Amino acid sequence: MKLPLNEKMKFVEKMVALHLRPIVLAQDVVTDSAIRRLIVDAGEDVQALLTLCKADITSKNEVKVKKFLANLEVVKEKIIAVTERDNLRNFQPPVDGFDIMNTFLIEDKTKIGAIKTTVREAILEGEIKNDREEAWALMVKIAEQMGLSKIKPE
Known about the structure:
Layout: H1 7-18, H2 21-24, H3 32-42, H4 46-56, H5 62-86, H6 97-104, H7 109-124, H8 132-145
């Protein structure tokens, strides 16, 4: 839209991009990883997103409105449960680029990014816990698979 990307516009852009996801996540077969991704993608604005979704529920058909409102409550409950269980509020992976650079003495941003992304995805998929010990072990494993050797212990 060629508007300046200030904080308000970034917020609006995020809300527009995410506004349909909570309604889709109301199904019974939704995985925890889908909820984790929503929480991480919405970040601090998850409550604002849920408010927007509630405002989006408009119909003259009261049955549909009640169904969608009930589904939205299911999503809220799932978000609360996953957030509490997985410690995802303001999610930041327990290992960062500095850990990777300092441990393996590398500056190659593509390798650093690949390791960070793999650790992040493993946490969001529920393959490892969101804690430093498991993230560190996975970081070392990935780096070794890339041919990097550990220079500095944790």
